[in-house]
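We emphasize that the prediction below concerns an isolated chain of 495 residues; any contacts that depend on oligomerization or on bound cofactors are therefore not represented. The input was used exactly as deposited, without trimming of termini.
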Amino acid sequence: MTRRLFGSVRSRATLAATLVVAVALLATGAALLLSLRSDLTGQAETEAASAARAVAVELSDGRPYDKLTGLDEDDRPVQIVDERGRVVAASEDLERVSGTGTDAVRPGRDAGGRGAEDGDDGDDDGNDGGNDGDDGDSGRSGSGDSDDDRGARTGEVDSDTDYSTGTATVDGTTADYRFASVEVEFEDRGKLTVHAGAPLAAERSAVGTATTAMLIGFPLLLAVVAGATWLVTRRALNPVEGIRREMAAITASEDLARRVPVPATHDEVARLALTTNETLAALESSVERQRRFVADASHELRSPIASLRTQLEVGAAHPGLLDLDGAVADTVRLQTLAADLLLLARLDAGERPGDARFDLGALAREHAEGRAGVTVTADAVPVAGSRAQVGRVLTNLLDNALRHARSAVTVSVRAEGEWAVASVADDGDGVPEVDRERIFERFVRLDEARSRDDGGAGLGLAIARDVAVRHGGALTVGRAPAGGALFELRLPRAR
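Result of the prediction step, given as a token string:
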């Protein structure tokens, strides 16, 4: 069942179209999700960088930790770390953080700063840090610093910003964040790093919503594409099915006169129907020619066989009345006709002429030798093919010319460019222009009243043209200078 389903053009076209659209949708969807995620992540990075740099600028101005405005925002985690990775200040509501390199959210005992008061003994630690003037981390509460002290502790904000992704718990809520890290360089306190995060909830929500929409919409769109392709291909292939049914009917009935329907679409299917009808017409003509050939051959063979039988029966009953010359003539005629029919059968079967090289002029002189009234003027012109078949052409042309000539036949062989031309002319009545193509048909004799003994079976010129065409040449008839028929055989010259 599966093999039968996918064995049809319509099924394969539908499957191919659906697969192409599916691949295109997947690629487009992936690109869209990546672009959306990149844009929203970039937006979060901008927000985080802005927050981190704002805190870094305040630090560089010498503002104490408990006066930093960036640490008061409820929904944005901020963490300040010194060179040794110790937290010196953090957002008040920050409970847990990861992704910044330091998981601590409150300053230690030896790193005074905002948030120390939230731990046990925070006041004592803060006072100790405030009295430790040489440590460089004094001013954690900022209450004892003068303007001159803050000015002495100003720093330089680094222009580079680093980014990382992590999580943070703010006021009991855990979420994903994009962290921006900005460094501030101090002469007395060394280097401090400000980590500020921007939530990725919008990015996660937007990407999830887009993914859900794609998971729902893509199958529906693929179903629409498959259905539309199925209907369109069915409509497009209906004429093909009509052609198939008619061809099956023609095969069953063996009626080659029937033709397949031609759709009025002027497309490939219509051209297929026209070509099919042309093939049927050619096949019908070929079969009709074959039928006529068999009938004519049977008719032509019947006459010499009947004549020969009659003579033999008379000779058997009355030996003195046996016409040996007539019997021999009928036998020769029967042999010639059988040879012609055999050669035609071989030509129709597509026998290749071969590629032997020979001189057409010498061949013409050979076949004209010993014939009374024949004059030969032949140049040496090499051709390639079957020497026997080309010799048969010359023999048939000479026999035909001598049959119709009054007194003389002229044979010439010459080279014309890329062609070797052999001409046979007589001084008879010639061939009427309307019959100059008809005489090359099989079993055609223009003078039907003429006896078969004088006129032959009507196969000589047909054989001559078939041989010429299969050698890549041509055989034509025109009017000779003496008023009779002029036959010209053209064959490609051998290189």
